[in-house]
Specification:
The longest helix has 16 residues. The chain has 15 helices and seven strands. It starts with 15 loop residues before the first helix and ends with a strand. Strands 3-2-1-4-5-7-6 form a seven-stranded mixed beta sheet, sandwiched between helices. Helix 9 crosses helix 10. Helix 3 links the parallel strand 1 and strand 2. It folds into two domains: 230 residues, Vaccinia Virus protein VP39 (Rossmann fold), CATH 3.40.50.150; 80 residues, DNA polymerase, domain 1, CATH 1.10.150.170. It is of the alpha/beta class. Bound molecules: S-adenosylmethionine (SAM). The site of S-adenosylmethionine has 21 residues, from helix 3 and strand 2.
């Protein structure tokens, strides 16, 4: 049985399936349905998903600190701070542009907000460094609103989307790590096949990977062309032919698998008893990993036969709110296209 308090360390960029498997989550993630849509939001920085539900839940918590580990434009944080005077927010984002937007949006809340540029895998260090500001207050909530913001997708200089030509970057933090173009140039064709397969590109993964390695794209248009060259017109499915390839590369370039496993484990570690962890994911592979980690924290890793009762001494750390993911309403999905692929999971910490 895995020790639930065990610390996880990032180890480079690997797939959700590989990482989940190595970390002891049975996770039969062999196929990720392409549910994330690269929708454009021309208005605000980012329209928060499931804002009402999340704000209500976090605002009902006792006085303390909520870690918004994916601060973005500060939409969820602003709603929470406005509604819950007993709550302070420690905001984390790895993107400087998010910090600029959130600083402006949250300035009215003064010292009730502290923002840190970091990854959420580094959450425990961030909390340790903010100890003075936290002042011994309980961590009553952690929010992980995964993936990229609408602004990141819309900003044509960032290279996240096939909808405009741009340098093939895709880093949430463009000041660190390698760009998608460098990643394609560095890895071998087998790694490309593997990340494409895990993102649901089963039939043409090999052809696309070889085409990418031949083309060594440095712009989004070149990447799109290399995918198009590998997939016959007759075999193209609904949606854009390059959707899965763009998503697979983004996940790999940003080490999203490692980030999720490490960040969610850290969230559970940091919460006070009674605190809640709230996770919104946007594709099925990600949601399956969240479900698996929360389930493991719920059972404490116990695999004893139900008839015998638990004899292994496993400790339940969280209770999970609902077995199935919570989905946005039809009305929200109609007004905020990004909400269509969202899945919300919540767990409350019950023991250390
Ligand atoms: C979906 S947006 C969050 C939007 C935010 N909830 C709001 O209301 O504006 C995700 C944000 O999380 C950030 N992010 C994603 N993964 C991250 C990670 N591993 N560490 C830190 N920030 C991350 C992205 O840069 C992006 O700004």
């Amino acid at each position: 049985m895995r020790n639930a308090n065990q610390q996880f360390r990032p180890r480079g960029m690997r797939s959700l399936a590989t990482v989940a498997h190595e970390r002891g989550f049975s996770s039969a993630i062999s196929f990720v349905r392409p549910v994330e849509r690269l929708q454009m939001n021309q208005g605000n920085y980012h329209q928060p998903v499931l804002e009402k539900e999340i704000t209500e839940l976090l605002a009902s918590q006792e006085a303390g600190v909520v870690i918004d580990a994916t601060l973005g434009g500060g939409g969820h944080a602003a709603a929470l701070l406005a509604r819950a005077p007993q709550i302070r927010v420690l905001g984390i984002d790895r993107d400087n542009a998010a910090h600029t937007a959130a600083t402006e949006r949250l300035s009215e809340f003064g010292d009730r907000v502290r923002m840190v540029k970091a990854t959420f895998a580094e959450m425990e260090t961030v909390v340790a460094q903010a100890a003075e500001w936290i002042g011994g207050a309980p961590i009553v909530g952690v929010l992980l609103d995964l993936g990229v913001s609408s602004r990141q997708l819309d900003d044509v200089t960032r290279g996240f989307s096939f909808r405009a030509d741009a340098p093939l970057d895709m880093r949430m933090d463009p000041t660190s790590g390698e760009s998608a173009a460098q990643y394609i140039a560095r890895v071998d064709v087998h790694e490309l096949v593997s990340i494409l397969r895990e993102n649901g590109e089963s039939r043409f993964a090999g052809a696309i990977a070889h085409s990418m390695k031949r083309a060594l794209p440095t712009t989004t248009d070149e990447l799109t062309a290399s995918v198009e060259a590998a997939v016959p017109m007759a075999a193209r499915r609904r949606g854009h032919v390059a959707t899965r390839a763009f998503q697979a590369l983004r996940i790999a370039v940003n080490g999203e698998a490692e980030q999720l496993v490490t960040g969610l484990a850290a969230s559970i570690n940091l919460l006070s008893i009674g605190g809640v962890v709230v996770v919104i994911s946007y594709h099925s592979g990600e949601d399956r990993v969240v479900k698996e980690i929360l389930h493991q924290a719920h059972t404490g890793g116990c695999k004893c036969p139900v008839a015998l009762g638990c004899v292994c001494g496993a400790v339940q750390r969280v209770e999970v709110f609902k077995a199935s993911a919570i989905l946005p309403s039809v009305a929200e999905s109609e007004t905020n296209p990004r909400a269509r692929s969202a899945r919300l999971r919540i767990a409350r910490k019950v023991s250390q």
